[in-house]
Amino acid sequence: GTFDGRTTRSMALNTSDDGFIYTLNLPSNTDSVHLSTGLVDIQLASQVISGVRFLKSTENAKIEQLWGDSAVFNFTPYYNNIDLVFIDGAHSCEYVESDTSVALKMVKSSGGLIVWHDAHLFGVVKFLKMWIQKNNYPLYFIKGTSLAIAEIKNGLPIEMKVE
Fold first, then answer.
1. Which of 1, 9, 105, 126 is most deeply packed, by most CB within 10 A?
2. Range 4-13 burial, b when 16+ CB lie within 10 A, else e
């Protein structure tokens, strides 16, 4: 989710000159979504102007704002094209599972990263624990943050080389 665009703008500020960011958010008039999630996840789309923190900034030239429900959005143009996917949207286990499945397809086969926000909360932690246990995937929780990260290659998590 884009929400007010603070994270999106920060990412744009910290990318190379040729870096580009796509951000997806529910349209502000959304009253229902495809998968189950809490009402607060839907209401957040109308609480602020989505992307307001980058819309009139110089970083806006490096950002494309997309609109839709991630459970049914057509991500195929982005498959095997993305270096980093940041998952921060609906917090239900069902949405995190769906978003993760799509993220695995979007990350370049040569390698990239998936980062989950709120990794210690709600359905996010429930999904991540289940995903790790079921598949024995390497996943790293970044101490002192709400983030988890996995390195992806050829559509699967791999052991990260931490230096």
1. 9
2. bbebbbebbe
